[in-house]
Amino acid sequence: MKLWHHSLSENDIRQCLRIAAGATLGFTLCKIFNWNYGVFFTVTPILLLGMIPKMTSQAALQCIAAAVVCGLEVGILGGLFGSHQVPMLIIAFFLFLYKFTCMSKGSLFLFGAQSILSLSIMLHFSSYPQTDINELIFNNIGASILSVSIAFLMTALFPDVDKRVKHPAPTKKVNRIRHESLMGASVAVLSFLLFQIFDLQDSMSAQATTLLLLFPMHWNGTLGCARKRAMGTLLGVAAGLAVQLFLYNWSSELILVIPILWIGLMLLSYAHVKEGGGSGVGFAALTTLGILFGQYLAPDNDLVFSALYRVSSILFAIIATLLACYLVHRILNSFKATRFGQ
């Protein structure tokens, strides 16, 4: 929280503008063209513009590659083994394992992070017979391509004023990479299994939370991330409810929703950059608000029930994920080959 008191630089202000305008543009296009899975079109720009201070061609390739690879994995493997629970869990474990390995090594962090979220959500929803798998896959790929285009557009409209300092990636020993990869894959598969067992079709935000908590890839980082995620969720839900109460019966009027959504995203982006970036309270609030508007705001639906349900499901998901991470962390630390270290 000491970072909260640092003053915003010109680059920070530009990043706030990029996040707010980019997510609002993705939301607007999704609603105008009546695309399904609006969460992809609203949250993906937030992930790109919030996690990456400056959009690059390498980041664009990793984002699009993640969507294409996950589409192939879900389309082929999900189609062949989707009705066989045990083989599907084994396959999902190895898919998550190599994605977390990409994240742990650092050079393909964005590819791993994006594909972990996409794979878990698409595998879960593709298991239901009413889901059109092709529509799900192509919406995810289309949202990734559109989000990359939006990110480059926002970078051109609101470019950095000063050159950003690149921080070198930390070097990790093999045992730490094994620990992080195995812990992430184990908890991700356990999350997928529980969402299947309890038939949780309407808990995308809770499912995403269980995965976002794994991004630090070690127990201490997950513990700190959980506290920030809970605070950010409450902040994002409060912002969503405030918008709903302000609009009241006019929440179906897109021309009124757009500017108010931009204001909410701008305020939460301010909180995000004040924390110094990363997966903090502000970032959690941004993704929560993006999920509420992208997935649950419709002419025949408001945000009140969805927002309250999000809070309860996410808080339960945080507690369950922390318990699973602690147990897996202790088990992996029992073996020298997978012991966590520098």
Task: Tell me what the structure shows.
With 342 residues, the protein is mainly α. It has one domain (2-338). Helix content is 74%, strand content 0%. The protein is built from 12 helices and no strands. The longest helix has 29 residues, at 219-247. It is globular. The two termini are 25 Å apart. The relative contact order is 0.15. The model has no long low-confidence stretch (mean pLDDT 85).
Please describe the structure with a list of short key phrases separated by commas or semicolons:
12 helices, mainly alpha, 342 residues
Write the layout of secondary structure elements.
Layout: H1 10-32, H2 38-51, H3 57-81, H4 85-105, H5 109-126, H6 133-157, H7 174-197, H8 204-212, H9 219-247, H10 254-274, H11 281-296, H12 304-332
Count of helical segments? 12
List the helices and strands in order.
Answer: HHHHHHHHHHHH
Main sheet record: none
The total tally of domains equals 1
| Poorly predicted residue ranges | none
Give the end-to-end Cα distance, rounded to a whole number of Å.
25 Å
Structure classification: mainly alpha
Query: Assembly type of the shown chains?
Result: single chain
Report the β-strand fraction as a percent range.
Answer: under 5%
Q: What integer value in Å does the Rg equal?
A: 19 Å
Number of strands: 0
- Average pLDDT number: 85
Shape: globular
Amount of helix: over 70%
